[in-house]
Amino acid sequence: MKEDRILDLLGEVDEKYIREADPEGQGMSKFFDWRKLAAIAVCLFLVLAVGRIAANLNLTGHSSNSILHLSVAAAELGMEEYMTGVSLPDIVYADAGKVIMYDFRGIYVYNIVKEELTGFSDFRPIDMTLIQGSDPTQVLADKDGKTVRFFNSEKKFVYDTEKNETLKVDEYEGQFDECNIQRLPYGDGDSISDVQLTYIGSNGNAVSLDLRYDGQDVVRYKDLVLLIKDKDKIREYEIFK
Amino acid sequence: MEDEQIVDLYWERSEAALSETAKKYGRYCRCIAFHILHNSEDSDECVNDTYLNAWNSMPPHRPAVLKAFLGKITRNLSLNRYRKLTAEKRGRGQMPLVMEELHDCLPTADHMENVVDDMALVEALNSFLGSLPMEKRKIFMRRYWYMSSIKEIAGDYRLSESKVKMILLRVRKDLKQRLQKEGINI
Asked: What letter does residue B112 receive in the DSSP assignment?
């Protein structure tokens, strides 16, 4: 196969390119972008400011109907099996109230206060399950976690995390302020999980995922545990139980 | 120990060469093998085979960069083992994804006589890599030489996964255009 041949021949390219990309190399700091850090700081400030205003106006709260419906869905989702080696969900947004993550099945919204899955946008019926490869589904949360845009080269969708509704759109309209959630590099001393990257939520808490399973090849979603480090204490949330 | 001293040990046929290699580059080689094979036992065997291959190649070889020399051996051994495991339906990890991504970015030859030889293709790849900005080149090599996952690359380079996927998509597209422009078929 041609991809076999190119893989073999890539092995013969100039050694300077191999050294340059060495995962143990020292070049990573060159990628540290202070503009990105500034953008995250602005994002953090805005989220905190919006959160404070919302708290003062007593605008917080969720629809009990959607929670009831999704509690059932969470239990069903938890029984699905998958092979280890398949990526764990990636976290795209986290604050004091919720964590938004996605994997090949869809987007999950977990309410930390209620300790329940309060939203799920299913990728499977809309054929958006390819999250790697040549035309992957890309998932972007906005800066306050209210909407999530996901798309590939052919289709575009908007998921409203508060209404738990997914809409197909022809074009995206209006400004979209993406939340660039901070992630710690693998092996960072502040990481709280060995199996998933650690992310820093807008409230400064470290958030990650872990698996509670007995080493079998097949694990279930119910084995997934959300980890949140608040001050020095790590809290665990069984998302799909 | 300096690389030159380790290479000298190989040339002196001292078994200390193997332990010094394992001490200095064992983790690096294992990382390459594990990304391809996604299995500890198979990865360890490939790393041990790397030492054996290095022992058999030095002398006569005296590599300028020992780390890259060992990395190449590990990568080749791991790819061969991966193909064997895939034939036995045991392959997993990043490889199926990497293969799928590369498949679409390569022009196909209409006739066998148009297939370019290996040396010309390596030259074209070197020229293409040399034309890329350093950041994009590193990301491309991390994915297709080291077989790192998108998540790892994003974490190491402090980029979003979407951004990494987008960079790879564009570089693959550029590679295909470049090869087509140069009349190189695979």
From this structure: G
Decide if A140 and B159 are in contact by the 8 Å CB cutoff.
no
Q: How many helices (H) and strands (E) does chain B have?
A: 9, 0
Last residue of a domain, one of B87, B116, B143: B87
CA distance B28 to B34: 10
Nearest beta carbon to residue B145 from set A5, A10, A183: A10
Q: Give A-chain residues touching B92 at CB under 8 angstroms.
A: 83, 85
Least Cα separation, residue B13 to chain A (angstroms): 26
| Count of domains observed in chain B | 2
Q: Do A21 and B146 touch (CB under 8 A)?
A: yes
Instruction: For residue B129, give the nearest of A5, A13, A36 by CB distance.
Output: A13
Q: Which of A196 and A166 is assigned the larger pLDDT?
A: A166
Is the same domain home to B130 and B78?
no
Pick from B150, B155, B172: CB nearest A132: B150
For residue B64, is it within any domain? yes
Kindly state whether residue B56 falls inside one of the protein's structural domains: yes
Please answer whether residues B152 and A186 qualify as being in contact, where contact means their C-beta atoms are separated by less than 8 angstroms: yes
Is residue B124 situated within a structural domain? yes
Give pLDDT tens digits for B45-92.
899 999 999 999 998 889 988 999 999 999 999 998 888 877 665 555
pLDDT at position A44: 67
- A23 preceded by cis ω (within 30°)? no
Does residue A95 sit within a domain? yes
Q: How far is CA A171 from CA A105, A151, A152, A163, B88, in A?
A: 23, 10, 12, 21, 45
- The number of folded domains in chain A is 1
Does residue A209 or residue A131 have the better pLDDT? A209
Domain containing residue B38: 3-87
Residue B186 lies in a domain: no
One domain, residues B79 and B106: no
The token pair at B23 is 């001490």
Q: Are residues B120 and B171 in the same domain?
A: yes
Domain C-terminal end among B34, B65, B87: B87
User: Residue B104 and residue A134: Cβ atoms within 8 Å?
Assistant: yes
CB proximity A13 to B under 8 Å: yes
How far does B70 lie from chain A, in Å, by closest CA?
11
